[in-house]
């Protein structure tokens, strides 16, 4: 049983699971100054520099060396004094590339982006899991148990404890990471998410997650919940760290949500991730020339993050090349729900690549639909689709084909207008 493992045995098992997924693995001291295969000049460096430079050259073959050096510097030197601000700035680089400029042969300046990762072809990235990776910052030295690097950038930090030790449970792993965040923040400037485990339990969360928001990942393939006989840490690693899954998670299933005062980093749960993938697959099928235009239904239990599932789904739709930048119409059946959901989407504008709009009445909804040929997220209530007078047919609001409708609380309103719709 995993509960009988020592921390070092748990580390070794963790590295073996990563090897199963095709990751290279290494022992931290071997990569450090004075090690057998040093990849950094001092313990204050958290990037594996040559791996990052190799990736920049490989993924940006048309950029000159000066532009690649500029990209490296911008990644290597965080610009803000705050950890979360640096993390958000890096997340933008992860998604969109690093802004660079260079002088062309004709003397003009070219402004473009250098890619840090290949999100479409995950096998063009370099995946490495390292245990006992010592980091010093100021006069402080810390040694996280496992750090996962992609293209030389430390994207995931894992803290493992021994469940047999009463003082070293999963809660202790969480608090250890909080200590690390304060002591060696440079390591976490690039962090996508964190993992904690005591050999029995395993959870994942973000830099802003409190302990209760660290959640288990309960499936490997999305087709069913893994049996309890399989260790939670094994399920989490095999489910979240398949290389294609990891690249998708960090780029399309993480978001920053802000209310203007506070900011939270949110990672999709396993049910949200797999539900959205299935919904996108169904959307692609339904919108084919021979498609039936019917995408399907997702059922959520209360408190399972339905609103964020809708955000992640919309975020996938707006970047889907097959769908051609559709307009998304979000329907609710109550004004207060419309306001609540609109507020949630508005706080997540980064992942949606734009700011949603709210239709005030049917004429406004029609105008919003007809004023664009593609793109945009529009909120409305089901009442705006009702006939104006009893016996009338519902009016045509648009003849466009690239409109995708999401209906919230569909069981209350999608069985005809005789359903219980609150005005």
Please explain how this structure is put together.
The chain has helices at residues 7-20, 28-31, 49-59, 65-76, 83-96, 170-183, 185-188, 232-240, 243-252, 270-286, 306-318, 335-346, 349-352, 362-370, 410-413; strands at residues 24-27, 98-103, 109-114, 127-131, 135-137, 140-142, 146-150, 153-160, 193-197, 202-205, 254-258, 263-267, 327-332, 357-358, 377-381, 403-407. The protein has a six-stranded mixed sheet with strand order 1-4-7-8-9-10, with helices on both faces. The protein is built from 15 helices and 16 strands. The N and C termini lie far apart (57 Å). Helices cover 36% and strands 18% of the residues.
Q: Biggest sheet, open or closed, and with what strands and sense?
A: 6 strands, mixed
Quaternary structure of the protein: single chain
C-alpha-based Rg, rounded? 24 Å
Main sheet: strand order: 1-4-7-8-9-10
First-residue to last-residue Cα separation: 57 Å
Report the helical percentage: 25-40%
Shape: globular
Strand content: 15-25%
Low-confidence stretches: 417-423
Which structural category fits the helices and strands? alpha/beta
Total strands: the figure is 16
Structure annotation, total helices = 15
Query: What is the overall pLDDT average?
Result: 91
Topology, pairings included?
Blueprint (H helix, E strand, L loop, with lengths): L6 H14 L3 E4 H4 L17 H11 L5 H12 L6 H14 L1 E6 L5 E6 L12 E5 L3 E3 L2 E3 L3 E5 L2 E8 L9 H14 L1 H4 L4 E5 L4 E4 L26 H9 L2 H10 L1 E5 L4 E5 L2 H17 L19 H13 L8 E6 L2 H12 L2 H4 L4 E2 L3 H9 L6 E5 L21 E5 L2 H4 L10
């Amino acid at each position: 049983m995993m509960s009988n493992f020592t921390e070092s045995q748990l580390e070794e098992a963790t590295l073996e699971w990563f090897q199963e997924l095709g990751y290279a693995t290494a022992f931290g001291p071997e990569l450090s100054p004075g090690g057998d295969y040093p990849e950094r000049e001092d313990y204050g460096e958290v990037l594996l520099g040559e791996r990052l430079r190799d990736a920049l050259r490989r993924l940006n073959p048309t950029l000159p060396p000066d532009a690649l050096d500029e990209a490296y510097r911008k990644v290597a030197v965080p610009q803000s004094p705050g950890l979360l601000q640096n993390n958000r700035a890096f997340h933008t680089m992860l998604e969109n590339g690093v802004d660079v400029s260079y002088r062309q042969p004709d003397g003009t300046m070219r402004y473009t982006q250098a890619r840090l990762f290949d999100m479409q072809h995950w096998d063009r990235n370099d995946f490495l899991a390292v245990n006992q990776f010592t980091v010093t910052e100021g006069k402080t030295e810390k040694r996280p148990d496992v750090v996962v690097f992609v293209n030389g950038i430390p994207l995931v930090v894992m803290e493992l404890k021994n469940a047999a030790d009463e003082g070293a449970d999963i809660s202790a792993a969480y608090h250890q990471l909080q200590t690390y965040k304060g002591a060696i923040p440079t390591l976490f400037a690039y962090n996508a998410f964190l993992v904690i485990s005591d050999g029995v339990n395993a959870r994942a969360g973000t830099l802003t997650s409190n302990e209760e928001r660290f959640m288990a990942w309960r499936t490997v393939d999305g087709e069913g919940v893994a049996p309890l006989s399989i260790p939670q840490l094994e399920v989490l690693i095999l489910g979240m760290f398949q290389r294609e899954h990891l690249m998708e998670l960090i780029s399309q299933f993480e978001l920053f949500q802000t209310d203007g005062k506070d900011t939270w980093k949110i990672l999709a749960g396993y049910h949200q991730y797999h539900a959205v993938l299935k919904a996108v697959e169904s959307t692609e099928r339904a919108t084919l020339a021979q498609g039936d235009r019917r995408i399907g239904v997702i059922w959520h239990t209360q408190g399972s993050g339905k609103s964020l599932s809708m955000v992640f789904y919309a975020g996938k739709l707006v970047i889907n090349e097959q769908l051609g930048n559709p307009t998304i119409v979000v329907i609710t059946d109550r004004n207060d729900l419309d306001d609540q959901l609109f507020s949630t989407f508005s706080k997540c504008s980064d992942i949606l690549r734009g700011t949603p709009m709210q239709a005030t009445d049917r004429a406004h909804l029609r105008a919003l639909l007809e004023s664009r040929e593609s793109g945009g997220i529009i909120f409305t209530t089901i009442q705006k689709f009702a006939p104006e007078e009893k016996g009338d047919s519902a009016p045509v609001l648009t003849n466009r084909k690239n409109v995708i409708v999401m209906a919230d609380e569909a069981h209350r309103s999608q069985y005809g207008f005789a359903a219980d719709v609150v005005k």
